[in-house]
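Risk register update: the risk of archive-format incompatibility is retired. Evidence:
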Amino acid sequence: MIDLRNIEKAYRTKAGFSYVLRQISLEIGEGEFVTIMGPSGAGKSTLLGILGMYDQNWEGEFYLSETPVHKLAQKERSKLNKSFVGFVFQQFHLLDDLTVAENLDIPLSYRNIPKSERQAMVADVLDRFNIVAKKDLFPSQLSGGQQQLVAVARAIIAKPKLLLADEPTGNLHSDQGREIMDLFKKLNQEGTTIVQVTHSEENAASGKRVIRLRDGWLENGNANIKPKT
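Archived output:
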């Protein structure tokens, strides 16, 4: 599903270029559950942003289900993202002027799903995440953990083929975190490809393969280790 070839990301500084990612080449098959790990500043979130097509400024080749993302205009990348990808952001990125229910409806509206069907899907997800009582509240009225749950619910509501998650349990207590990982494992068993960034070895154990980054490089060339069976 994902094929990266010599991906590089750099920022121009007064001293020259400062690289965040160097020569990243890896493949992630359809239906895999992959974890990206590494110390702070290793480039993990940057790589996830490229996979989600939120970061436009990088070099190299990126194929998503054989579509050459590196050749697409920004508008085409955005369209592909909306139809294909679910993303759990580390900073939530909920829309402050929309209620919880309205935030959940947003990814469904991109897929031209009839309003009545969208309402049913939102109600189902609200119930699954035990946040029915929060549906008419705005993000500012929620705790950090509650916002995280809404962010995860929003990412999975449209049943994306590719789910990307940046520290998906970072603001949740341990029981909630395990519930989210159990949900991810179930989605993966149903065919969703998942790539998560985490510092948690427990969360990493939910996946089938670990990719480690250090200082922007793949560590020990382990990106192509075969998945656990």
